[in-house]
Amino acid sequence: MTTQNSGLHAVAAAEPAEQAELDRAGQEHFDRIIAEDSRIEPRDWMPAAYRRTLVRQISQHAHSEIIGMQPEGNWISRAPSLKRKAILMAKVQDEAGHGLYLYSAAETLGTPRSELNQQLLDGRAKYSSIFNYPARTWADMGAIGWLVDGAAIANQVPLCRASYGPYGRAMVRICKEESFHQRQGWEILHELSHGTPAQKQMAQDAVNRFYGPSLQMFGPPDDDSPNSKQSMAWNIKRFSNDELRQRFVDMIVEQAAALDLTLPDPDLKWNEERGHYDYGPLDWDEFKAVVGGRGPCNLQRMQRRRQAHEDGAWVREAAAAYARRTAPERAPAELIGA
Amino acid sequence: MSENHENTVRPIGAASDEWPLWEVFVRSSRGLSHVHAGSLHAPDATMAVRNARDLYTRRNEGTSVWVVPSEAVTASDPDAKGAYFESAQGKSYRHATYYTKSEGVKHL
Ligand SMILES: [Fe+2]
Ligand SMILES: [Fe+2]
C-alpha cells in the first residue's frame, strides 16, 4: 500500500488530464477557506508548499516533544521526594503524548510515521534547540517547567487556531496539559527560593541559564525569519516571533518577582511609551551554533534517541509477531462493547 | 500535485515493519457519543485500546474507548462536498422555523 486510503488519512489522486482543472478549483476553495479563517482538513486540496511547510513544522514540533523528554527524564530517579517523582513522571509522560498527538496530525498529510521517525534518527530533522542544553541541578526542573514550558505555551496557544484542522486540534489537547507543566516548575523554584540561601542560589542559577535560551525558543528576530510571512498568510502562524517573545517577557517579569528571583538581563525595564518591557539583545550566534548541531548536548541527545529506538526493536518485533499469530481470533469488533 | 504524491510513498522497508494505524474514539461520559480523538499505531486491537487509554485518557477524559483500523474508514468524496451536502437547501420546510402561523401559541 503506497497511499493511505482511509477517509481520514488520504491524499486525493487524479488523472493527469483532470489535474489542472482540479488544481484550479482546489486553489480557489483553499483561498476561500483561508480568507474565511476556516479550517483545511486532510482530504481538502492544498498547495504543495502548504503541505510541505506543515509536515516540516508539525514533525519538528513532535520531535521536540520526544527529545524534550530527555533532560527531565534524567531527573526522575533523582527527584527529591516521591511527590516530585510522581509529578515529573506524569509530565514526561505528557510530553511523550504530545509527540504522539503531533505525529498523528503530521501523518494526515500523507507522510508515514516511520518516515518522520527516520528523519529524526538520521539527523535530517530539526527539533527545538532548547533541549540541547544540559539540566545540571534539580532547580533546572523548575526553570524548564516555568520558562521552557512557559515559552512553549505562549507559542502554542495561537497555534490552536492554526488553519490546518488536525494540527489545531492536537494543539488544543496539548495546551490543556501544558499549564500543569508550567505551574509545577514555578512551584519547584518557589520552594527553592524560599529555602536555604544555597537553595535560593541554585534556583537563581537555573533561571540565569534558561532565561536567554527560552526567549530564543520563539525563533530568530522578525527581520531574520524569512518563512514567517508566508506562514502568517496561510493562518498557520498568528503572531510574529518578536510579538510572541515580547508577550512572554511581559508575563515572566511579574512571575519572577513573585518568586523573589531576578531575570539576568540588565536592560530589562518597563517602557511606558510602548506599554511593554524592553529587554536586551540575545546571543543569536550561540542560537545558530546550537541549531547547527554544536550545542552542549546535541550529540548526547541524538545518541540517546537512537539507542532507545534500537533497544526497543525487540519489543516492536515481538508485538508484531504476536499480532500476526493471534490475528484470526482477535477481531476488533469483539472489543467494542462500549 | 506531483509533490503531494511524493509524500505518500513509503520508504523501502518501512511499510512492512510499521504497525497499522488506528482511529481512536472516546466517550467522554455516560450518555454521550464516542467522538474522534486522534489516531495511533499499534500491532493489534488489544494494544490499540491500551495505547488509546494511555494516550487519550490520562485525565479522566473518557469512560469508553473505540479503536477502528484506519483502513476500514470510508469517507465521502471531499471534491463532491457542495453537491453532496447541499441537497437540504430549498427544503426549509424540514425545519420547525418554516412554520410561523403558530407563533404565540403556547407549547407548540
Ligand atoms: Fe509538551
Ligand atoms: Fe510541557
Polypeptide structure, described:
- Helix content of chain A is 63%, strand content 2%.
- Chain A has 338 residues and is mainly alpha-helical.
- The longest helix of chain A has 29 residues, at 165-193.
- Chain A starts with 15 loop residues before the first helix and ends in a 12-residue tail after the last helix.
- Mean pLDDT of chain A is 92; it is low at 1-11.
- With 108 residues, chain B is α+β, with helices and mostly antiparallel strands.
- Helix content of chain B is 26%, strand content 19%.
- Chain B has helices at 2-8, 14-17, 45-56, 81-85, and strands spanning 21-27, 34-41, 64-69.
- Chain B has a 3-stranded antiparallel sheet with strand order 2-1-3, with helices on one face.
- In chain B, a hairpin with a 6-residue loop joins β1 (21-27) and β2 (34-41).
- Residues 65, 95, 98, 174, 178 of chain A line the site of one fe (ii) ion.
What sort of overall outline of chain A do the alpha carbons produce when their principal axes are compared? globular
- Report the sheet-strand fraction of chain B: 15-25%
Name the structural class of chain B: alpha+beta
Residues in helix, % of chain B: 25-40%
Distance, first to last CA of chain A: 31 Å
Give me the side-by-side strand order of the main sheet of chain A. 1-2
Overall pLDDT level of chain B: 81
* Low-confidence regions of chain B: 1-15
Instruction: Count every helix of chain B, treating DSSP H or I runs of 4 or more residues as helices.
Output: 4
Element string of chain B (H = helix, E = strand)? HHEEHEH
Kindly report the greatest chain-chain contact and the residue count on each side: A-B, 63 and 47 residues
